[in-house]
Amino acid sequence: MQKFLALSQMNVIEIQKLIDLTLRIKNQELTENDQKMIGQVNGKYVTTIFLEPSTRTKLSFEVAAQNLSMRLLNLDAQTSSFSKGETLQDTIDTLEALGCSAVVIRSSEEFYYEKITTDLAIINGGDGANEHPSQALLDLVTIYEQFGEFAGLNVLIVGDIKHSRVASTNIKVMKRLEMNVQVYAPHTMKVPELEVEYLESMDDLSKFDVVMLLRNQLERHNEKLLDEQTFLKEHGMTSTRLNTLKASAIVMHPGPFNRGVELDEQILKDSRVKIFEQVTNGVHARTAIFMQTLGELKWKRY
Ligand code: CP
User: Which residues line ligand 1 (CB under 6 A)?
Assistant: First the structure.
């Protein structure tokens, strides 16, 4: 059994292997070894425990599990014994006793998994503002699909850097993959200690290959935010800003997005905007994650 906890703790060869597997799944080019791994996963029980809201991550793990003929146990945090105070550790021990092999967990607590002892495959669906490894994987897949390489790409990450586990994971991993990462954020959403260069204005985006927008995480803010129109005008992806991007560039957003705040809905029609392609890639990336964590045939290490 393996665990999938933090993409930034994986080496670049392991990350590239996961990207390649994801694209083989998407393009229906599975090898004999991939088919054997699918055979090992088939029929295993998996549960999702989402202690924070989710649509994309939860459902795409569930679609991936069903596509792999895994058996999905439904655990709703609100109606389960969590509401009676049962701990995460006791819940996981209970799932193991029930015969479960894997559990996908999202929690508001950073590094929650360090407190858990188990032989189950733990897959991190997001821990506070720390990591969102399956999202970062699908983001990398979307970029690699477009450009066929990472080194030298110019990436701009825009918005709520302070509260975003998507930004936190991507910045660490993208730098290791030799992408040039810059960030742009309103004053209240900056992180001073971040080891990346802040862009002063996002009015000229012509040098960037990838612009990744972030959701304003209203539930994590204490300070007053700009009103929606002002945010869009000063910090959002408008049609005017989109027009400064080159033809080969792509615009991403992990979702859910706030129309008229982080982006003008007019831009959704532009073929450079890959937001729904990211969702599709999320199913394939999460299929690859199940195969890697549960398949008994492991990849050869270099
Ligand atoms: N991108 C993402 O994590 O979306 P959900 O919160 O809907 O899972």
Answer: 54-57, 135, 254-256
